[in-house]
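Database export, one record per block. Field names are fixed; values are copied verbatim from the stored entry.
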Amino acid sequence: MAGKLIRLDHKHIFIEQMKMSVDRVLQCYIRNISGPLSPLIENNLRKAGFWHATTIGQWCKLDPKLISGLIERWRPETHTFHLPCGEYTITLEDIQLQLGLPVDGVAVTRSVQSADWGAICYDILGVIPDNIYGCQIEMGWLRDIFPEPRNNLTELERIRYARAYILKMIGGYLMSDLSRNLVYLRWLLKFVDFRAANELSWGSAMLATLYREMCGATSPNKAKIGGCLSLLPSWARFRFPFLRPLVNHPYIFPLITRWNHPASYVRIPTALEDIQFLLDQQSKAQENRYDHIPDREPIIVPELVCTPDYIP
């Protein structure tokens, strides 16, 4: 049965890395938002359900070697990390706890494929971008047009600033793509009404995007990976204590912000070969931690299979 299920080894980095003289380290990128969030748009961000997500995009640092080590054990056939102690995956519960994004509600579906995006930008943002690439715009343009909001903004202008801020979060660190500087305008159509946006399952959309990026990155010829890359190291550190640095800071919500504080990395692996070794050896030793937990039925959600077994 297992032989029939795991069928993509000939296309997987886990096999090819055995032949490589140097281990592959994926190119990872995150676009943090500089400066503190303006209180002028805080209320609108709370209405849209993105308030907690704003706290993770200012000091996040990526760990490309840890991310690369995890991708080597990601199986596209099952959407799980294949480890000696069993199968692990990132669940919707992880998304809610780690990022604070809503995971209940209606699925976030694709908007129209073709539209007058210039007119849509003018209606929703009040300005037309200099350049529109299909249905994408440059993140740099958003940053320049929507800097720190002034105190004398009208309510309509505050709404537009909040929409632009959410778009910067999505393109910068929640659902970034390999372009590193473009974001899809179709997300704008979801923020015409902030309260309606809060009823969408943004956590599911973000997790599906990350799953797709991880599946693509298992190919040996891939050099880059997109998606919410700050989530991967944070999830692994909470899941596997042997990867966790010493942080003299209490647990706070969302959980990913725990690593935004000074940490001690003494005796914590930083080389890829050390991370690979620990994932193979220490994860097996950790198996006994979960022996007392009864089996639970998986939760089936559209296009995702998640098991609610988060243990911090």
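Remark 1: The CA atoms of residues 138 and 182 lie 5 Å apart.
Remark 2: Residues 290-312 have pLDDT under 50 and may be disordered.
End of record.
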